[in-house]
Amino acid sequence: MSYDxxxxxxxxxxxxxxxxxxxxYQERAADAERWAAEHRISPSxxxxxxxxxxxxxxxxxxxxxxxxxxxxxxxxTAAIDDNRRLCEFIYRNLGIITExxxxxxxHMTMQVFHNIFLVNERGxxxxxxxxxxEEEIAQGVWKLDPRVTESFxxxxxxxxxxxxxxxxxxxxxxxxxxxxxxxxxMLGGIGHALVSAVEEAVFFHGVARYSRTDFQVKGDNPLTxxxxxxxxxxxxxxxxxxxxxxxxxLINKLLDFDxxxxxxxxxxxxxxxxxxxxxxxxxxxxxxxxxKVYLLEDCTSPIVIPDGPDFTEAAxxxxxxxxxxxxxxxxxTDPVRTWPGISL
Length: 344
Description:
Rossmann fold, 2 domains, six-stranded parallel sheet, 10 strands, globular
């Protein structure tokens, strides 16, 4: 296991991080093998101190300006800047990152947070970014489109009961309103893919270290939102029947690492709630385990909608709370060996 910080390979072009392009896998694999030999990088299976780098939703849909939910942050280029630093972090620390775990927000057309799901008495769908209140559902302002119920093979009564239940559960949690999101991270589409420069870095790491990248799909359940990769927003229907469950396999896997480093998008939403759920699990198991979590504050940004909501303050307050609970808020540019609690 190499503890030395490494230079960026010659193929890395920081100016292309905000673009979409095809990774030349065969060429890059040969480069990675030569790189590993040149820098004496050992296979990840030999690591005695095991580090997991979790990348939350580093996908085109959130990270490329012309895509659906680009996280521009306050600067307008936040996700691009975050991913430039992230790629540099991966290459610089390639010899000590045991495994990369990439969460993939994954959606299909008919899901409860897409406007096709709901319809009013005039047959109109709600506009993207609409906030649907529990009261509107109860009053019948919005109902589940009968064409959707037919497609899913459920009764109109089940649909009505579930929609009320879903809105109530979200309201009770007081996290976010029942939000209608524009179509994004569509399975099979370009927006679903990892950012090209990050994908290349992840692939390069996998070959150089003989490490199997763990891709974790989330958000494909049609009946519930999934901000966190560890737990969907609603797990039971109106009758109390399970419709989803916690990702216990991933939780247990993360607990097994000596250190877990987290980056990705958006700091105010999917990163926020993934870390929050992880904190709950760690505290219920052993509060001391929070010491193994490191949040790359310069590789994640909050959602800031021009002339709309700005989630910066809420995201910063959340990171302060995580730090207060024992997690470490760190910067990608600081040597990992200097981070508190790291034993390389």
